[in-house]
Amino acid sequence: MAKDEDYVIVTKGLTKEYPFGETTIKAINGIDFAIKKGEYATIVGPSGSGKTTFLNLIGTIDNPTSGEIFFNGRKVSEMTGKEIRELRRTKIGFVFQAFNLLEILTTAENIALPMIINGTPAVEREERVQELLEIIGLPDRGEHFPMELSGGQRQRVAIARSLANKPEVILLDEPTGQVDSNTSREIMDYLLKINREEGVTLIVVTHEDMIASESRRPLTIIDGKIYEGILESFLDIKAIQEGTL
Ligand code: ADP
Ligand code: MG
Predict the structure, then answer these.
(1) With a 6 A CB cut-off, is 129 part of the ligand 1 pocket?
(2) Average pLDDT for the chain
(3) Whether the predicted pLDDT of 172 surpasses 70
(4) Comparing C-alpha atoms, which of 18, 113, 7 is closest to residue 69?
(5) How much is the pLDDT for 186?
(6) Are 129 and 179 in contact (CB under 8 A)?
(7) How confident is the model at residue 79 (pLDDT cuts 50, 70, 90)?
(8) What is the DSSP string of 164-191?
(9) Residue 39, Cα to own-chain centre: how many angstroms?
(10) Residue having the nearest C-alpha atom to atom 12 of ligand 1
(11) Where are the alpha helices (DSSP H) in 101-229?
(12) CB–CB of 7/73 below 8 Å?
């Protein structure tokens, strides 16, 4: 049996409701979930099923309507605002589908941002930036601006930035949503390498079958609920909802 401290994130009965006219929409509908340190999981699911809401909740940038989130065994709802900001700054990295980089800053400055916010000394910061540029295969692009990079290179820089403060978890919301399949392959190869070599826990929301099918832990979100595995069709989904699968 895995112990509580083996898990980096645990959710219990996680629910998020949004008001909708006279009623409410349950964007997240009672999710029990746990992910161990160093795991690599993917999430697929139809548009509007709650994938982004789920990432935002476990990333502590949104609050649940009910239910609990535990980070390294601690209840997030019992942390102070200061502790939550600290958690978000040092333990969690985010990568979004697009618009990840600030165009007026160089690649190196973009990667350094989380460390500047964190008060990391300049010398240490510069060493880490160089180390990260090497990890993502762009050792000599530090002085380039984002507009001088390809879509795939930009996403690799966004990934490097999410790694800057050596987080325990990186949450990626469709990171390959705006690139072609070869570029997507290249981005995923870097992510897998980072997972392997740096031991970072990765949760990747994706619409790509290729990515989901390679994952050691493919998950599916449908109607605000989470399932282990990839559900092949809406027939499966219906059967699950009706309890006949
Ligand atoms: P996905 O990322 O899987 O496409 P989302 O998590 O963005 O889905 O959305 C899940 C559901 O919650 C959708 O029905 C969406 O319309 C609703 N929703 C998301 N964010 C908000 C919001 N800020 N206000 C109201 N409804 C929202
Ligand atoms: Mg989304």
Answers:
(1) no
(2) 90
(3) yes
(4) 7
(5) 85
(6) no
(7) very high
(8) TT--SEEEEESTTTTS-HHHHHHHHHHH
(9) 12
(10) 27
(11) 107-118, 122-135, 151-163, 181-198, 209-214
(12) yes
